[in-house]
Amino acid sequence: MNDDVRNIVLGVIAAGISAALGWVARTYLWRRRLRRKQAFFGLPDNSESLLVVNRGAGGPEFAVMRYDVFALLELAALIKDCNAHAQILPHDTARQGFGERTEFCVGGPASNRRMAAHLSSLLPGVRVNVDAEPGPDRGSFLVGSERYRVENGKEEYALLARLTAERSQNTRPVFLFCGQTSITNQATTRYLARHHERLARKYGNTSFVLLLKVINSQAYGPDVVELVEDVTRAAQTAPSAASPRTTHRAS
C-alpha cells in the first residue's frame, strides 16, 4: 500500500470515527434534554396524562371554545414530544385525586369545576370573580391583596401553575391554565410550550405560580404575553381578612 492509498484510508477512517462520535454526542444531548423535559412535565415514556377541559360559556353541554381547543392542541404536542399519552376528560367527569398521572387543567373556575376545586384546595390565596352580572370586577383575579381586572381584547391576565401534592406519595404534577378569557388560556399554554426549558432550569420539579398578562389580544391573538411576576407565595397563602387590597386597572 503506497502513501497516497494509506492517507485516503486513514482519512476515511478518521471521518467515520468523527461522524460516529458526533452522532453519539448528539444522541446523548437529545436524550438528556428529553429526560429533563419528561421530568418537568412528569411524563416518562409511555405514561398516561389527563387533559381536563372546560365548557364554552352559554354553549351546549359538551361545547369547547375555539381557543380552548387550540390550547389542547398545544398541550397534546408537548405530551407527544415526551413519548406519553393523553386522555381528554370533561371538567365535570374528572372526579379523582391527582398525583398518579400528570394533569393539564384548562379554563377558569366559572366554566371548569375541576379548576375551581384546584384553586380552592391548592391556591387559597387566589380568588376569581365569577359573578354573572356585569361589573368592574367581573372576571378579575384577586391574588393575595392584589386585584387584577380584565379589559377584554386589551389587557387580560392568566395564571400558569405547576403544583404537586406535598403530602402525597404520588409526585406527578398538575398544571393549571387559568385565564380570564379563552384566548388567554391558549396564550398560557403557548407560553409554557415556548419557555418550559427556562422554567425547568429555574424551578426544577418544584411548584410555582406565575401571573401572566396578555397584551392586545384583539390584534395579536395569544402571542404577546408578559410575565407580571411570580406569585407562588401569595397564591399558596390564605389572605387575612384585614389585608389591604390594591387594584390593577388596564391603562
From TrEMBL:
Domain of life: Bacteria
Keywords: Membrane, Transmembrane, Transmembrane helix
Transmembrane segments: 6-29
Transmembrane among keywords: yes
Identification of the protein by name: Secreted protein
Protein's organism: Streptomyces olindensis
